[in-house]
């Protein structure tokens, strides 16, 4: 029975989902965390053979020390893994120190450092946004004069559009630079703002070979959602993943993963289709996607994508599922100010599209609205016909309104 050490700094809903899928396998599971395990359900705790609490799960030395402590209780370690974006470099460094298989340190840096990533892609002839990593405001202004507005200002190791600004003019650019404060210690990534449709591309890879992929359409883009907190947005996963219109992104995405050094795992690639039809890679994470995309993949293909990820990471096994449905997610976000006061339109939505609903998480009455672009709740739909799901998502975000007050 393999000994697996899983790192999960916090017990968020999504973190518990991935931890639970790992714990369900026939393994001896050790857990590294920053939170008391008593916050987990008794059922999940019973599957954890040993645990170690650390002050900072993102520090390589603390991961190594905790893993060695757990090895004394469980025996020699076979796998060390975690699903959080910010963990991928320290996990890789810890694996290298402990002599464990998994994503290499070099590859982890390729995925985590977005400026390094874009430079590698450009050198490989792969399409991505014009960009520059700057350590001072003067270099940032030089790039702005060279490329023009709009521009994106963000940290080179960001995730989920965190601390990311779209700037449409010099005044907004100056404000973003002041907030980001580029320096030698904390450089800032500046890149052109690509106009077009934004998408994601998810790939299950085994020993460097893509074995299954999926993609989604964002409506609107996550950055626009962050700029407009009231927008209820949607993700569509079409059934026709193999359609020739996606041949270009399949080719580019698979080559991107090869260049960056992906081996075994699930990756999340964000990309744009420009108005002229060309594509550009935004960025790639060597980790599972957020925003319920794994749930969409699960519903569209009638399998558990998270369980498949765990099986792949630990046993190097993956069985491609059959593509059966289109799926979509509508994200519910409050309008107004204050706490969540009411949810309107649910009855009408149930009457019109209730037969398509597979998963629901409603905003909690009385709660503070979330600052995340994922919002305060979601509804997931599926149907064999992609246009049926697309139209139902548009109707849903029109019917359902979350009132703040």
What do these coordinates show?
With 405 residues, the protein is an alpha+beta fold. The chain folds into 3 domains: 3-101, Rossmann fold (3-Layer(aba) Sandwich); 130-192, ATP-grasp fold, A domain (Dna Ligase, domain 1), CATH 3.30.1490.20; 201-404, 2-Layer Sandwich (D-amino Acid Aminotransferase, Chain A, domain 1). Helix content is 35%, strand content 26%. It is built from 14 helices and 19 strands. The strands form 4 sheets. Strands 13-12-9-10-11-14-18-17 form an 8-stranded antiparallel β-sheet, with helices on both faces. It has a 4-stranded parallel β-sheet with strand order 3-2-1-4, with helices on both faces. It starts with a strand and ends with a strand.
Keywords:
single chain, 405 residues, alpha+beta, Rossmann fold, Dna Ligase, domain 1, D-amino Acid Aminotransferase, Chain A, domain 1, 3 domains, four-stranded parallel sheet, 35% helix, 26% strand
Fold blueprint:
Elements: E1 3-7, H1 13-23, E2 28-33, H2 42-45, E3 50-53, H3 60-74, E4 79-81, H4 88-98, H5 105-112, H6 114-123, E5 131-134, H7 137-147, E6 151-154, E7 165-167, H8 170-180, E8 188-192, E9 196-206, E10 209-219, H9 222-227, E11 234-237, H10 247-260, E12 265-274, E13 279-285, H11 293-301, H12 305-315, E14 326-332, E15 334-335, E16 340-344, H13 346-353, E17 357-361, E18 377-383, H14 386-399, E19 401-404
Parallel strand pairs: 1-2, 1-4, 2-3, 15-19
Antiparallel strand pairs: 5-8, 6-7, 6-8, 9-10, 9-12, 10-11, 11-14, 12-13, 14-18, 16-19, 17-18
Helix pairs in contact: 1-12, 3-4, 4-5, 5-6, 13-14
